[in-house]
Amino acid sequence: MRLEEKLGQGGRMLFSLEFFPPKTEQGLANLYDRIERLGRLGPGFVAVTWGAGGATAQRTLEVCSACQGVFGLETVMHLTCTNMDRRKVDEALDGALAAGVRAILALRGDPPRGQEYWSACDSRFQHAADLVRYIRERHGDAFSIGVAGYPEGHAESGSADAAGDFEHFVAKVEAGADFVVSQIVFDGEAFVAWERRCRDRGIRVPIVAGVVPIQSYQSFRRLAFLTKVRVPESLRQALELVKGNDQAVRDLGVAHAVETVERLRGAGCAAVHLTTLNLETTVSRVVERAGLVRAAAPAPAGSGAWVDDFPNGRWGDARSPAFGGDSSAYGALMVRFDADEARRVWGEPRTLDDISALFGGYVSGRVQSLPWCDEPLLPESQRIVAELQRVNGLGFWTLASQPRLDGVASADATHGWGPRGGYVYQKAFVESFVPGAAFPPLLSRLQSAGPRITYYAANRQGDFMTSAFSAGALPENAAVTALTWGVFPGRAVEQPTQIDKMNFLAWRAEAFQTWREWAAMFPPGDVADFLQRTADECWLVSVVDNDYKSADDGAAIWGLFV
């Protein structure tokens, strides 16, 4: 049975699950375990995302092949035409056929970060409708083809072009689409009204509603920012009341997702598409509580299951399937900022002092974002803001930081996380870009500061060094450094934030890519050349003070930056 036939059968509501290709091999292995468990809930299909320009092509096909061939789940492969020429599209489609995948979600894709305007790599692929037509021409009915719908308009269109945006959507369907998957909605009424509009226009293909269970307050804010979808005031106010309680946020996310599913079911919606962010617990709770389970419930997560209920901060665990994919990556603003906005907010730096002034303005609150940070400095860093201002003034550009904590109540409004009734701990930490000339003397001080101080350092060219070694370990096998952990009633010790070589190098790639994207916001010339040259010469350095019990409040770190 083709996917559109399954979706069009009527009767009991179906659900589907969306995953993204993990960044690491360990994350991939744990994702497969997770997919196997979630598959026992009986999803109508699973979907796997595709990176712009085919950045994740091999890994996407690998995950699709496992879902379809190993786990026996009907699989939809996302495919974008952003920066994709005909050869890449053909290779992707041939790979899908070889993997047994018979459904494609055809997308234009997000503009590549750092380009002021999106431009097609192949003149044949200007819009998603072009990709739909091409798949039909080349493969006939071999694939069920889906397209994306935007109940509240595309984020790039704005309310002024709502009519034109809907006409673009209609054109995609008329090009030969078999089904539609909507963008996420936080307001079920928005989807119901839009689906009615689709039916009134004569669109008869199945339409699947996009729903995302809220996993954390930070990821919710970022998703709302990037998608521009409306957030009901009641939901916004409820989240504000519990935003400092991770468990309460997740519980609220489950309740809201279930409520949304029930509203959609009542309106006759055929299926809901759940964005998992590669996380398991919250999604399972939504499926079960909304009465969507169509098969045996998954086995409880045991010792072999990877538990990542509370990803906390940039440095998650590289073994987690969700590592690096909860929208906490560097450069989130590059997706939405055009060149004029970037210049207005971040200026036109031509000297190292200009960059120091920009970072100093950020930590002092005068600048609300950086190319690497899409929100103001977190409240927990206010305790060390004077040191951050001093360090940036000296020409070390800080990206992330945290003060030490020694048994702070998990209910603490500023520093707490996880279930109530517990205690949280963290080591003092700072991450910064270090200009090339300043790196050798800093490195000398870092090397003399062990074992209390642990550092990780890498440059754009791929050179890497660290002091994090287990006894007898080879240099290439850097040890893990815990940054944040917590103890809670009825739970094992939670350790959601840590640094190791794998995740540090993954973020290094993102960090230096963002330099390139920032430079691309300017026409060729002195500013763009300066930013590129600075990125080529500087180092990304993370420094950890292992003595979280010390009363000097991280002074061992700050004394290194002179």
Provide a descriptive summary of the structure in words.
By secondary structure, the chain is an alpha/beta fold. Helices cover 37% and strands 17% of the residues. The protein contains 18 helices and 17 strands. It has helices at 3-7, 25-39, 57-70, 86-98, 128-139, 162-174, 188-200, 217-227, 233-242, 246-266, 281-289, 339-346, 352-364, 385-393, 439-447, 501-519, 526-537, 555-558, and strands spanning 14-19, 45-48, 75-80, 103-107, 144-149, 179-184, 207-211, 271-275, 397-402, 405-409, 423-426, 428-434, 453-459, 464-466, 481-487, 494-499, 539-545. The strands form three sheets. The protein has an eight-stranded parallel beta barrel with strand order 1-2-3-4-5-6-7-8, surrounded by five helices. A five-stranded antiparallel β-sheet has the order 9-12-17-13-14, with helices on both faces. The longest helix is centred in the middle third of the chain and has 21 residues, at 246-266.
Task: Give a quick precis of the structure.
Helix content is about 35%, strand content about 15%.
Strand content: 15-25%
Gross morphology is: globular
Q: Taking strands numbered 1, 2, ... along the chain, how are they ordered across the largest sheet?
A: 1-2-3-4-5-6-7-8
Mean pLDDT: 86
Judged by helices, strands and strand pairing, the structural class is alpha/beta
Q: pLDDT below 50 for ≥5 consecutive residues: which ranges?
A: 113-119, 302-306, 311-315, 326-335
The termini sit apart by: 68 Å
User: How many runs of DSSP E, i.e. beta strands?
Assistant: 17
**Rg over CA atoms:** 24 Å
Helical content stands at 25-40%
How large is the count of helical segments? 18
| Main pleated-sheet profile | 8 strands, parallel, barrel
